[in-house]
Specification:
Layout lengths: L9 H8 L1 E7 L2 E7 L2 E6 L2 E9 L3 H7 L3 E6 L5 H7 L17 E4 L2 E4 L4 E12 L7 H7 L6 E13 L1
Antiparallel strand pairs: 1-2, 1-5, 3-4, 4-9, 5-8, 6-7, 8-9
The structure holds flavin mononucleotide.
The site of flavin mononucleotide (FMN) has 20 residues, from β2, β4 and α2.
């Protein structure tokens, strides 16, 4: 699909529908559910930004891979996304707890059931500065100091079912 034809309600897309953030290839990959994310433009490129806490196994893989995917699903997979967002791939083959089927492409992974997959090339990453977060949000979301790393990826392809 051409990026110009990609037409979504960005305020609903991550927050309500959720997505899977997947990193790695057939030799080693992991996926996790995300509901925070942005789509937009930076440095004359179409980009997606995701926010991943340092404690996630996915974080470790993101540090060691150049590409990641962000994939979206219909409501029938909400339960699967719930599982992938509560179990860590560090402890378990969590994908086998769902009905999702991994789809391995060159150096990326997505799932057969995805409605669409944004293929992203890592452009930039930075840890959030805890001192720059408003205090009410800090108290609510960062009392354990498990901060998010911000990953900005260039959308290099959109795969559509
Ligand atoms: C609906 C939902 C949204 C989530 N969004 C995020 C997110 O945006 N960033 C994040 O770091 N964790 C998020 N999580 C938590 C991770 O998905 C969860 O900790 C997961 O088990 C991490 O897996 P991993 O250790 O295999 O990487 C979310 C969980 C759910 C259920």
């Amino acid at each position: 699909m051409k990026i110009d034809d990609y037409n979504v309600n960005i305020f609903k897309k991550f927050n309500k529908d959720w997505a899977l953030l997947t990193v790695g290839d057939k030799n080693k990959y992991n996926t996790m559910t995300i509901s925070w994310g942005t789509l937009g433009t930076l440095w004359q490129k179409e980009v997606v930004t995701v926010f991943v806490r340092k404690s996630r196994y996915t974080h470790e893989l993101l540090e060691n891979n150049k590409y990641f995917t962000v994939s979206f699903y219909s409501d029938e997979y909400k339960k699967a996304l719930g599982i992938l967002g509560s179990v860590s791939g560090r402890d378990k083959d969590k994908v086998s707890l769902t009905k999702l089927t991994p789809k391995f492409l060159d150096n990326i992974t997505t799932f057969k059931e995805a409605k669409e997959t944004l293929v992203c090339k890592k452009l930039y990453s930075q840890d959030m500065d805890i001192n720059s977060i408003p205090s009410d949000i800090k108290d609510k979301l960062y009392s354990d100091s498990d901060i998010h790393t911000i990953y900005i990826g260039e959308v290099v392809n959109i795969l559509h079912d």
